[in-house]
Design brief:
single chain; mainly alpha; three-stranded antiparallel beta sheet; 14 helices; 3 strands; 47% helix
């Protein structure tokens, strides 16, 4: 059986290069359209896992390894394998590739190569300028133009010098021999000029972890050590607005029951589902109370006697009467 050639060498790694999602392209994807809603987070997890592999953008040709890498049970993976692995193909190196991800890796390689070429051209240009500079004048120091001294000739014929002409930067051209100028020779010829110190690289600011990573770290502090920041249910809870305190409480309960990360996430999902059901069954609007016929009759007689029935009907005043303690006035 003949396999397609691998799209790039096996030593290509992401090395911190970000994997950016093209949302518009994903929504146009046939695989995304065919995948059920509960499978779409697993598709994203599959692509992200492939980006971190060696070579970048590939997966092992093993269902067991792929399911283990993305954290999906093997039975579930085999059930939905046709949808999850749609468009993936095996190359001659024994790895599986996907054409859109191959395009991302190729673009990354081209950008890295362009940056390396730009830096190489800059170094070559700098070396060329150093070699072309006059041997008697260090780089970045301009000598006095021939026939003009800044202290004696101003172009007006009057002169501003003191009468003594000195030239410490221009050696005797009759005895001087031109040689390629280096930083060492420049410092030797001009002791007052020291070689520039190389710039120290600036430390990169620490990257702030994602909210999912913060949650797993907080749960680890409470005793949950098998947290997975890319777990689909965890991402779904974050999307639904679950707070850090909810995850910490779930972790404390799970540790008390000697359970792990999956139990804590499942418990939190169940709590939110039960809360949603309670909201659906609660009565909407003001709570209705039962009123006996006698209480209703007494309330109506009291409203007629006090003239508050009309004002209540007109909406100008709201009366809250506890009828069981009211004694109706005598009527003529």
């Amino acid at each position: 059986m003949l396999f397609k050639a691998a799209p790039y060498p096996p030593d290509i790694l992401a090395k911190g290069w970000r994997f950016e999602l093209d949302h518009e392209r994903i929504r146009r994807s046939d695989t995304w359209a065919l995948a059920a809603l509960e499978l779409r987070p697993w598709l994203l997890m599959l692509w992200m896992t492939a980006w971190e592999q060696s070579p970048c953008g590939s997966l092992p040709a093993s269902d067991e390894l792929i399911s283990a890498r993305i954290g999906m049970p093997l039975k579930t993976f085999l059930k939905h394998r046709e949808t999850l692995m749609r468009g993936w193909w095996i190359a001659d190196d024994g790895r599986m590739y996907h054409d859109p991800i191959v395009e991302f890796v190729t673009d990354m390689m081209n950008r890295r190569r362009s940056e390396a070429d730009r830096k190489a051209r800059g170094r070559a240009k700098q070396a060329s300028e150093v070699q072309k500079a006059p041997a008697s004048v260090p780089r970045d120091i301009h000598g006095t133009p021939k026939g003009l001294h800044p202290e004696s000739d101003t172009g007006t014929g009057t002169g501003t010098g003191t009468g003594t002409r000195t030239s410490t930067l221009i050696p005797n051209t009759k005895t001087h021999t031109s040689k390629p100028l280096t930083s060492e020779s420049a410092c030797a010829a001009f002791p007052e000029i020291s070689a520039p110190e190389p710039e120290k690289p600036r430390p990169e600011p620490p990257k702030k972890p994602s909210f999912a990573a913060e949650i797993t770290m907080a749960m680890r502090r409470h005793g949950i050590s098998d947290g997975n920041p890319g777990h689909p249910n965890l991402l779904a809870l974050i999307e639904a607005g679950a707070t850090l305190a909810e995850f910490e409480n779930a972790a404390i309960t799970s540790v008390a029951k000697k359970k792990g990360f999956a139990y804590a996430i499942g418990m939190l999902l169940k709590q939110r589902a039960e809360a949603l059901e309670r909201v659906k069954t609660l009565q909407k609007g003001p709570l209705l109370t039962d009123e006996t016929p006698y209480q209703k009759s007494m309330r109506q007689r009291f409203e007629v006697a006090t003239g508050r029935q009309n004002s209540a009907q007109n909406g100008s005043e709201t009366i809250d009467v506890e009828t069981k303690n009211v004694t109706a006035p005598a009527l003529d």
